[in-house]
Every structure is written in structure tokens, then in C-alpha cells.
Amino acid sequence: MARGPLAGLWLAPHRPLFLLAGLWALLVPTVWLLPPGLGPEPLLWHRHELLFGMGGAALGGYLLTAVPAWTAGPRIAPATTKVMVALWLAGRVAFACGAALPLGGLIGAVYFLALAGILSAQVLRAGVWQRLPLALAPLVPGWAQMHDLPGEGIVLFFALLIGLIGGRAIAAFTRHALASHAKAPEVADPPWLAGGATLALVLAMAAQAEAPRLAGPLLIASGLMQLARMVAWRSWRAVGYPALLLLHLAWLWLPVGLVLAGAARLPGTGVAPATALHAITMGAMGSMMLAIMARAGMVRQGTRLLVSPALALGCGLVHLSVLPRLLMGWSGADPVLLRLAALIWMAGWALFLWQFRRALQGPVPRPVLSARSRA
């Protein structure tokens, strides 16, 4: 086996891909701090690279690390991980160089197509058909890159993934964390509630082009049902377990973002579409990705994951960074608020990267994102 300072990096897909997601979250907003005319076109770069770059790396790292648990199969080989990292980097280079569509979009889409191919092959081989929709989910951002689809649809798609993946994870982690408490209430995740929220969001995504006024109430309904899931999860009991609390706090941005997105489609609400989108991207996507990825770098103490002061501050800063950006929806395009949001966000992700360095070397704990470690 190869030795060296980077040998441990390739032992699990989450290590390089979560690292790249964190680095991209830190680097991409610097475009707002540059003098006008210097660097790439800010809005296009910011939107594309945070969705497909940061979001794509985080999605790949999570799914490739989770698939062996779905299938009871072998872990993803280091060589496969290296190929996926190379494809992700190729997409970044193609976009930075301004490769003309469809070539640029195709290069960026290959990463997502390969990710869906690897996942679906393992799922089909193991016969776990219920996991096939998640295995094929990367085809959606891949298709969006190939056809240069509007960013709003991809934002809602990531909201859908947060509801499906994040919701299941939070319910499972909460159930496990509270299981040791004899008097703890039962943690539930009613299928009708989770399914209803998902259905309403899917219908809203389908209706947004032809019937935006119908999409608005559907998004609000989805957001309210996602909020109601927190009651079934007994979210208030997470206060005593910081690693779990980070997930529940991140989840709050999902219903907030969906309700704002719905309100933005209704007349007379005064909610700007950009405000709603940033509640989902910076709020729900940013904080949920951070809360989940950070678990891989947390110190384990028995059956608990410990949140360091640096990580707690980093998560708090990512949450705080959303507020100046939301204020811009009511105060106008204030460059001071924009730069403030970027600086606070970047500081939060820098602290994550400092914490995550401990997860890049040594044996990989199994399962990666849970405190129930086993060799």
C-alpha cells in the first residue's frame, strides 16, 4: 500500500470530496471581495460553483461513503475515489476556462453521470431497489449542467435531497442519541408527513414554470410539513447533545427557505426570490452540509461525538452569514452587506477546514458519520 502524507486521504471518498467541498465553500465567495472587473463574472461564478462545485463534492462524498452501508458491499476503492476527484476537478477547470457549451457543460456533467453510474451499479448488484432513486439522483445536476438549466430548479432539487437524505439521517441520529435515556419520548418520522412534504415540493417544482401561483402554496405547504417533522423528532431534546443540535438547527433553514420561496411567488408578500433562494442555499444547503460533513472530523467519546469550540463557532458563523444576505432582500443590493455575508461565511468554513484536518489521516471509523464506531 502506498505510504506518504496523502496516503490516508484516499481511504474513503468522503475525505477528499468533503475537503474539496469545504475548500470551494471558502474560496468561491472571494469573487465578491475583488475589485469590479477583476476575476470571473461574480453572479454566474458564485451560483454555478456553489451549486455544482461545493454541492457536487458534498453530494458525492456522502453518497459514495454511504453506498457500502446500503448494499452491505465493499467500500469504494481508492482508485475509484481518485477518478471521481479528477472528474470533479475537470469540471471546475472547464467552467473556469469558459469552455463553450455543450462541451463545457458536458465536461462538468461527467462527474455526476459517473457518480450515478457507480451508485446504481452497486445498488442493482445488491438488489436494494429502494435505494435506486437516490443512486440516480446525481443525474439531475448532470442534466442541468449539460443543458445550462436555470439555477432555481437545481436549488429546489438540493432542497429535495436535504428533505430525503437529511431528514432520514436526523431522525436516525436522534433516535440513537435518545435511546439511552429511559424516559425519553419516542422519536418518530411519520411517512405521511415526510412523504407529503416531498410530494408537495415535487409538485411545486413541476408547476413553477407553467403555474407559479400554484407553486407558491405548494412550497409553503412543503415547508410547514418539514417543520412539523421536528415535532415528531423531539428536536428540543437535542439541546443536550451539540453534535445532534447542529443538525436540527441546520434543518430549520429548510422550512424557512421553502416558505419564503413560496411567499416570493405570491403577489403582495414583498419577499424577493433571491432572498428565498439564499435561505435555501446559504441556510439549508450550507449549514446542513457543514453539520453532516463535520461529523466525520469530530472526536469520539464512547457513543458521543464531541463538538469543539472552533467547530461550534464555525457553524454559528455560517448561520449568521445568511442574515446579511437576507437583509439585502429588503434593503437592496448593498455591497457592504454582500461583503459582510461573504466574510462571515468564509470564516465559518475556514474553521470547519481546520477541524476537518483530523479526519484526513489514520484509520477510517465505521460508520463514518456516526459515533457507533466499529473497526
How is this structure best described in words?
There is one protein chain. With 375 residues, the protein is mainly alpha-helical. It is 69% helix and 2% strand. Strands 1-2 form a two-stranded antiparallel sheet. Helix 12 (309-331) runs antiparallel to helix 13. The protein starts with 13 loop residues before the first helix and ends in a 19-residue tail after the last helix.
Mean pLDDT metric = 90
Per the principal axes of the C-alpha atoms, what is the gross shape? globular
- Order of strands, main sheet, comes to 1-2
Q: Report the C-alpha radius of gyration, rounded.
A: 20 Å
Biggest β-sheet strands, sense, barrel: 2 strands, antiparallel
Which blocks of ≥5 consecutive residues have pLDDT under 50? Answer: none
Structural class: mainly alpha
Please write the string of helix (H) and strand (E) elements. Answer: HHHHHHHHHHHEEHH
The DSSP helix count reads: 13
* Beta-strand residue fraction: under 5%
E-strand count: 2
What is the helix content? 55-70%
Whole-number total of structural domains: 2
- Report how far the terminal alpha carbons are from each other: 19 Å
Pfam families: NnrS
Protein name: Short-chain dehydrogenase
InterPro entries: NnrS
Keywords: Membrane, Transmembrane, Transmembrane helix
